[in-house]
Structure formats: structure tokens, C-alpha cells
Specification:
Strand content of chain A: under 5%
Helix content of chain A: 55-70%
Distance between the termini of chain B: 43 Å
CATH architecture of the largest domain in chain B: 3-Layer(aba) Sandwich
Mean pLDDT of chain B: 88
Structural class of chain B: alpha/beta
Number of domains of chain B: 2
Mean pLDDT of chain A: 88
CATH topology of the largest domain in chain B: Rossmann fold
Largest interface: A-B, 56 and 65 residues
Low-confidence stretches of chain B: 1-5, 25-37
Oligomer: heterodimer
Low-confidence stretches of chain A: none
Distance between the termini of chain A: 32 Å
Largest sheet of chain A: 2 strands, antiparallel
Number of strands of chain B: 17
Radius of gyration of chain B: 25 Å
Shape of chain B: globular
Number of strands of chain A: 4
Radius of gyration of chain A: 22 Å
Strand order of the largest sheet of chain B: 7-6-8-11-12-16-17
Chain lengths: ~375, ~450
């Protein structure tokens, strides 16, 4: 009998996810989001959220400092571009290694506490990294200005093989430039891989350990398990995911700024996960897409566009609607996001995935009543 | 079907996976193929041409961003032949016809850069990739300007910098596709130092508070060099984070440092806060080393002077332009801007407006939007009538060389806008410098990079 590798449901989910991701340039175009930069961001923050979910959703540790690993990944990648080579692969390898080491140190310290104390500790470390990047470490991070590639960087490996080029240096993959759609498919490949690994982790005995840490850590310890190595592994894995995402952001846009390590960036990934559905595989990715979509589309609307949109109304009405709606778009897009978040948390505590499940259940109930007994996936 | 219910074999999964990976490799070709139809990034094929305005509408420099936006809207209206024509009538030489650019109507898209480099870059990318912007302009922070300039070089889109005063923008981080009309910190130093020497003497001890990013660093360096050449001594230079609101922890040590001049290398809201708090600390009423304690703000604008109110009276600084200048260009711009928005324009608004016009003029002269040709038209271009006297867009570093104003906070303002007096206009021969002193490399214009 052949070894069973993946259950049918898992495989269908994975294939469905792959198709949805790869077809994004097509189905997102009508929503005004089918351009490479935003699609790349969808992929990158999707990876970030999937990794964060391994810690938060699976293990139950709420980290408020994940942006630090993201930032470390970006800085490492840019330094690799500057010092070694413009090829993306070494940059990403280094980024993942360095962020893993960084996560190991921070995780080792923070995981001595759980619950809110853990959250506060991670927040403190992340904010510390951010402030260091802004002040003491400016020779490494270039502070507020951001770390950028220049023509006269050393690039030892490129120089060794005698590779020269003209114009602004940009990251490549075996000589192929990674801007635009090429960059998108590069990131999409990694998102699919990241999703696959997260799926494997969730289904593995190791994933079962993480889930039991979440449900009752004390009982685990009483039954003779040392939980800390498991929690630390989860922390490091999720830090590596964040580092990978940070590196990809540097690959597609080779500038690393300290803002991406700020606590707002850490909070954003928490929002993404909760919005989409904590503990589900697809949820965090959907949450990331929704937040990035809002950030990029709503924040780009201005009064002129609104005026055009409402122009079918009579004059006074149109002006009134423009005044009201303008508060929710442009620089006020956070207000819309906040409202959406409140609505989701009140009516769908399990995030968007809970909504999807409810609809699916309703459909099934009206269709075949017998299917109601089918077990729901945990969380 | 039986296979599926039993789960899948490892081999089957690997096969499907390989097919997926190959598919992923092939797919990009299908999508990028069409992009090569146009010969350069965002070649405008319709009857409009799109400017991308990247403006800090929130954050430390938000007020400058809002003023720049007004100026761009005005410039675009004038380019399209609407309104009173503004500076189109005084620019000399001018190829502008008031019917858009090369017969195409000018429209714009905008993005809030939040005074952050990361966000500015993301916004610029969106405007180039999605909205088809032919040119990116704006910004009120050198951090943003340098970040966006690098991006524009990568994409092959011209960047007309807004307010950016760091030496690096046209110094070590200069780019072939980036152009700056605004003056820089080095020129502030040359202009300001003699005035400081005359007013405060040559044996002062200076203490710097500096915004901790590229602009602050280079301004500190330039002002330090210029004042030390006078014979001043620098006691200390302390870096403060951009966007700080409470400066008391930085101001307290100054009292016992033995310094008798405080130099604030801050801008925007930072400067309003630090200056106001320094005055509240009683610094200007103090005596140190037997002299009156003085505050100097090397770069100052009307907006900040207005924000700081009483505190700014009598304080020296430099500006790129002032609405109260009496040349035809300044008068025309102040009149148009005032008629449209009810207040005189700031220096940020002026530089933004002029940059938009200069780009349009260069396209008309080049007869095309093709960036390398437009770059050639701008490089070494000499023009007049824009309020700063004769101005040269220097080819070596894309820095405009023009006169610089030394200003002083007005002791008895007649209106809420009359907050700065022009003390001296330093002519452009004095503030010109050797472009090679800052290093850097413009890079090539051709082949024009092709954005996706």
C-alpha cells in the first residue's frame, strides 16, 4: 500500500489555493488591484501572516513584535545585495538564517512568560529593535533615510565573476530581473511553498503538540512534556517566515526602511490574522490581502474621484456625500479598516473564515441534511 | 477515484508539484509580453498625460504636503490653459502653449506618502504601475526624495523632487532620472554664515540639535563647516528622531553645555515644536559666556514660522523663495495662488509649481515624453522669471543653481502671513559650488529602463 501523503481535503485546499494565487492578475484586475506592486505585497504579507499564524493561531502565543523579524530579513537581504551579489537566492537564504537566529534569542527570553506578559515582552523587543535601527544602528540601517543600493557597492561575488551592468542596480534571479510580474510569480511561488509547509506543520505530530500547548499548556507539562522547545521552535519557524517575507519585500523593492519594524507593522499582522480567522490556514492570507487592498486602494482615493463617483446625485446631495465619504478614504482609510474590524469581531468572532463556514453550512443544510453531521475542522 | 479516497502517493504529489512549478515559470511570459509594445515606461497614447503627485498629507511634514498639492493643482490648471496662466506668462524662454503638454491634457493621481520613505516608494510604484504616471513629483522630506528617486531610476520615470534640502539628493545619491529645483544645505551654509558672523560675532559656541536622517546629517555638516570657518566652535551635535514631540530631554543639557548659540536642524512640525519649546525654556532671555543666547534655524519656511508664532521673531534662517519678493514671477505666482486659495504660497508650493512647469517645458522642447530626451532638455537648461532670478539646471548633478534668501523672523508682522523678512539675497555665483565635492554617480539615461 502506498504511503498516504496528504488527505484528499488537504490536497484540494492546496490546489485550490495555488490556482487562486496564480490567477490573481486576472481575477483582481476588475477590482483595480491587478498591478504587480500590489500583487507582490499580497504575496509577501500573505507569507508573513501564514508564519504569524503558526505562532498565534496554532500555539496560542500572541506576539506583538513580529515586524522586528520582518525588518531584520529586509536589512539582511539588502546588505547581501550590497556586499555579495544582486542574486535573490543568497539574500533570501541569509535573511532567513539571520532572522531565525534573532528569533531564537528573542524567543528564548520572551517564552519564559506566557499570555499578556509574553505579548508585552515581544512588543518591547520589537520597539527596541525599531529604535535601535533609527538611532544607534544608523551605520547599518541608514536610519530614516533607508538602506538603498548604489552603483558603487562592492558586490564581491558579482565582481569576482566579472558581471557588470548599467543603470540602477536591481535584484535578479540568475540574471533575470525580478520587477513587475516576474517578481509577482517569484513571490507567489514562495507563498505557495510557505502555505504548503504550514499545512504540513499543522497536520504533523509537531503541529499537534503546538495545538495542545494552545489548549492547555499546564496539562501538557503534567503529562510529562517539556513544552518550551516546541513553543520555541514555533517561534523560530514563524520568525523565519517573517524574515522570508521581509527578504522578498527587499527583493521586489530594494530599499529597507525602519518603518517596517514599527509597532504598527507588528499590530498590522495581528489584525490580518484576526480579520481572516485565527488558526485557519487560509484565513490569515485573506486577512492580509484585505488589509493591503484597503491600504492601497482606499488610501489612493481623493475628493476628485469621489466627486466623479457621486456625480449622479443632485448637487447639494453629491457635495454632502463627498464630504462624508472623504473621511473614510485617502488618509482616513484607517477609519474604514477600524469599522470593518469591529464589525467582523462582533458578528464573526472567528474572522472571515467563520463567515465562509457559516455560509457553507447553510448551503449544505438546505441541500443535503445528512451532511450536517460532517465534522468541522478545529478552529 | 479510488486513488483519491485513499489519499495520494508521494510520487503523484511530486508530479503535480513539478507541473505547477513549470506552469509558474511559463506564466510570467504570457503577461509581460504585451508590455514591450510601448517603447518606454507609460508612454501616453491617449489624449491625456498623467502626473503622479507623491505628497506627505499626514506626518511631520503634512502642512508642506498640503501646500504642495494646492500648487500642483494650480500648475496643472495653468498648463491646461485654465485660470490666469500664472507663471506661464513670465517663464523665459518658454515653449509652453497652455494646451497641456504636446497637445495632451494634463491630469494627475496622488498618493499620501505619510512622511515615510517606505510608504512614499510604495505609492510611487502604484502610480507608475497602475495609474500610468509619466512623471513622479512632490515630497517634502529628503528621505522620501532619495528613496523615490532611486525607484524612478529603476523604473525609467522622471522624478521632479519637491521640497528636499539634503546635500545627498543631488550629491552622493544623485540619479540621472532625478531633478531638484530646491536649494540645498551646503548653499544654506554659504548664505547664512556671513550674516551670522556680522550679527553674532566670530567667537560663538554652537550647539546643534539635528533631525536624525539624511537631511539633518548633511545640514549639520554644512552649517558646522560654514560656522567653524567663521571661527565658531561646535560644542556638541545631538541627533533627535524625526517626528519627536517633546524636546525637553534634548534642551536641558544645553543650559549647562557652555554653548551660546542653538542651531536647530529641524524642519516642519519638528521645528515648530523644538523652537517653541526652546523659547519656553527661556533660552532667548539667557546670557551665556557674557553674550545673549541666540537660536538659529538654518532652513525655515513661512508655514513653520507661522506655526511657531511669537517664538520665531528675530531668528535667522534661509529660504528658497519668499512670496514677498518683488520680481514679476513672484508677484504673478503669489497673485494666482492667493486668488485660488486665499493665502500666499509657501516655498514648498513654489518649488512644486516650478518643477511641474519645468518638466512640461522640457517635454515641449524635446518634442517627446521619452525620458532620455526630456533629461537632455533639462540638463544645462538656463531659464529666468520663476522668482529666483536667472537659474541653471546644472547637468553634472541635476541641481538648480540660483540665488538663495537669508531671512529673519519678522519682529512686527502686519498680517499672519507676514512672518519672515528677507534680509539678503545671495546671488547664484556665490552659492554655486563644485558638483564633484559630494561624489555620487548619476548613472546612465539610456537604455531607458522599462517598467512592468
Amino acid at each position: 500500500m502506498p504511503t498516504t501523503f496528504m488527505s484528499r481535503n488537504d490536497l484540494l485546499l492546496f490546489l485550490g489555493f495555488t490556482i487562486v494565487v496564480l490567477a490573481m492578475p486576472i481575477w483582481l484586475a476588475p477590482f483595480g488591484a491587478g498591478y504587480p506592486d500590489l500583487l507582490q505585497r499580497f504575496m509577501i504579507y500573505g507569507i508573513f501572516a501564514v508564519g504569524f499564524n503558526i505562532l498565534f493561531g496554532l500555539t496560542g502565543y500572541l506576539s506583538f513584535g513580529h515586524a522586528a523579524f520582518f525588518g531584520v530579513g529586509s536589512y539582511t537581504a539588502v546588505w547581501s545585495f550590497k556586499l555579495l551579489t544582486l542574486d535573490a537566492i543568497p539574500a533570501m537564504v541569509f535573511a532567513v538564517i539571520v532572522s531565525a537566529l534573532f528569533a531564537l534569542v528573542i524567543g528564548f527570553l520572551c517564552l519564559r512568560r506566557s499570555g499578556i506578559y509574553f505579548s508585552i515582552l515581544t512588543l518591547a523587543f520589537a520597539q527596541m529593535s525599531y529604535n535601535l535601527a533609527y538611532s544607534v544602528l544608523t551605520p547599518i540601517t541608514n536610519g530614516e533615510t533607508g538602506l538603498q543600493l548604489t552603483l558603487n557597492d562592492p558586490r564581491v561575488l558579482d565582481a569576482a565573476i566579472g558581471q557588470t551592468f548599467v543603470g540602477q542596480p536591481v535584484p535578479t534571479l540568475f540574471g533575470q530581473q525580478l520587477s513587475g510580474y516576474a517578481g509577482f510569480y517569484f513571490c507567489a511561488g514562495f507563498l505557495i511553498l510557505a502555505f504548503f509547509f504550514a499545512q504540513r506543520i499543522t497536520g504533523s505530530p509537531f503541529g499537534m503538540m503546538l495545538k495542545s500547548i494552545k489548549s492547555n499548556q499546564t496539562r501538557m507539562q503534567f503529562t510529562g512534556f517539556n513544552t518550551r522547545p516546541y513553543a520555541l521552535s514555533a517561534f523560530v519557524i514563524s520568525g523565519m517566515y517573517a524574515g522570508l517575507a521581509g527578504a522578498l519585500l527587499a527583493v521586489t523593492d530594494p530599499l529597507a526602511g525602519a518603518e517596517r519594524m514599527q509597532w504598527t507593522a507588528s499590530g498590522e499582522v495581528v489584525l490580518m490574522t484576526i480579520l481572516g480567522g485565527v488558526g485557519t490556514l487560509v484565513g490569515p492570507v485573506i486577512g492580509a490581502w484585505i488589509i493591503k487592498y484597503f491600504e492601497n486602494i482606499l488610501s489612493a482615493l481623493n475628493d476628485n474621484i469621489l466627486a466623479r463617483f457621486w456625480s449622479f446625485l443632485p448637487d447639494g446631495m453629491a457635495d454632502f456625500m463627498v464630504t462624508v465619504t472623504s473621511k473614510f478614504v485617502g488618509d482616513g482609510w484607517h477609519l474604514t479598516l477600524g469599522l470593518l474590524f469591529v464589525i467582523i469581531v462582533i458578528f464573526l468572532p472567528g474572522g472571515i473564515m467563520e463567515g465562509v463556514r457559516r455560509i457553507a453550512a447553510a448551503v449544505r443544510r438546505s441541500g443535503t441534511p445528512a451532511a450536517k453531521t460532517q465534522t468541522q475542522p478545529a478552529e | 477515484m479510488t486513488l483519491l479516497t485513499r489519499g495520494l502517493t508521494r510520487r503523484r504529489v511530486l508530479q503535480t508539484g513539478m507541473a505547477g512549478i513549470i506552469g509558474t515559470g511559463v506564466a510570467p511570459m504570457m503577461f509581460t509580453k504585451g508590455a514591450w509594445a510601448q517603447e518606454f515606461c507609460n508612454n501616453p497614447t491617449g489624449d491625456t498625460v498623467t502626473f503622479g503627485l507623491n505628497l506627505p498629507l499626514t506626518g511631520t511634514y503634512a502642512e508642506e504636503g498640503a501646500d504642495e498639492q494646492k500648487a500642483y493643482e494650480l500648475a496643472i490648471a495653468h498648463l491646461n490653459g485654465e485660470g490666469d496662466g500664472g507663471l506661464l506668462n513670465v517663464l523665459a524662454p518658454s515653449a509652453l502653449k497652455g494646451n497641456g503638454i504636446l497637445g495632451k491634457k494634463v491630469v494627475y493621481v496622488s498618493s499620501d506618502s505619510q512622511t515615510k520613505s517606505d510608504v512614499a516608494r510604495a505609492g510611487a510604484t502604484r502610480m507608475i504601475e497602475r495609474d500610468g504616471a509619466i512623471m513622479i513629483t512632490g515630497g517634502s522630506s529628503s528621505g522620501e526624495a532619495i528613496a523615490v528617486q532611486g525607484l524612478c531610476q529603476e523604473m525609467g520615470v522622471i522624478f521632479m523632487a519637491g521640497l528636499t534640502h539634503s546635500n545627498d539628493t543631488t550629491g552622493k545619491d544623485k540619479r540621472r532620472y532625478g531633478f531638484r529645483h530646491f536649494f540645498n544645505a551646503y548653499q544654506s551654509g554659504i548664505g547664512l554664515a556671513p550674516v551670522l558672523g556680522q550679527s553674532y560675532g566670530n567667537d560663538r559656541r554652537a550647539y546643534h540639535l539635528t533631525a536624525d536622517y539624511t537631511w539633518g546629517w548633511t545640514q549639520e555638516e554644512s552649517i558646522k563647516a560654514a560656522t567653524e570657518a567663521l571661527g565658531w566652535e561646535t560644542v556638541a551635535a545631538v541627533r533627535t528622531p524625526l517626528g519627536a514631540t517633546d524636546y525637553s530631554q534634548y534642551l536641558t543639557p544645553i543650559l549647562n553645555s557652555g554653548a551660546d548659540v542653538l542651531i536647530l536642524n529641524h524642519y516642519g512640525l519638528d521645528m515648530v515644536n523644538s523652537l517653541t519649546q526652546a523659547v519656553q525654556f527661556g533660552m532667548r532671555d539667557r546670557q551665556a559666556n557674557g553674550k545673549d543666547f541666540q537660536i538659529v534655524t538654518p532652513l525655515i519656511s513661512e508655514l513653520m514660522a507661522k506655526g511657531a508664532g511669537e517664538s520665531v521673531k528675530g531668528i535667522f534662517g534661509t529660504s528658497n523663495w519668499h512670496w514677498n519678493l518683488q520680481d514679476p514671477g513672484s508677484i504673478a505666482f503669489t497673485k494666482s495662488f492667493g486668488a485660488a486659495y486665499g493665502s500666499p504660497p509657501s516655498q514648498a508650493a513654489h518649488t512644486a509649481y516650478v518643477q511641474a512647469l519645468l518638466y512640461a517645458d522640457a517635454c515641449e522642447r524635446a518634442g517627446t515624453f521619452y525620458p532620455p530626451e526630456v533629461i537632455k532638455a533639462l540638463e544645462g537648461h538656463e531659464f529666468d522669471g520663476m522668482g529666483n532670478g536667472k537659474t541653471l539646471y546644472r547637468a553634472e548633478d541635476h541641481q538648480c543653481i540660483k540665488s538663495v534668501l537669508v531671512v529673519q523672523g519678522n519682529e512686527s508682522p502686519t498680517s499672519e502671513y507676514d512672518v519672515l523678512n528677507v534680509v539678503q539675497e545671495i546671488d547664484r555665483e556665490t552659492v554655486a559650488y563644485d558638483p564633484s565635492i559630494f561624489g555620487g554617480d548619476l548613472g546612465p539615461a539610456e537604455p531607458a529602463p522599462m517598467c512592468a
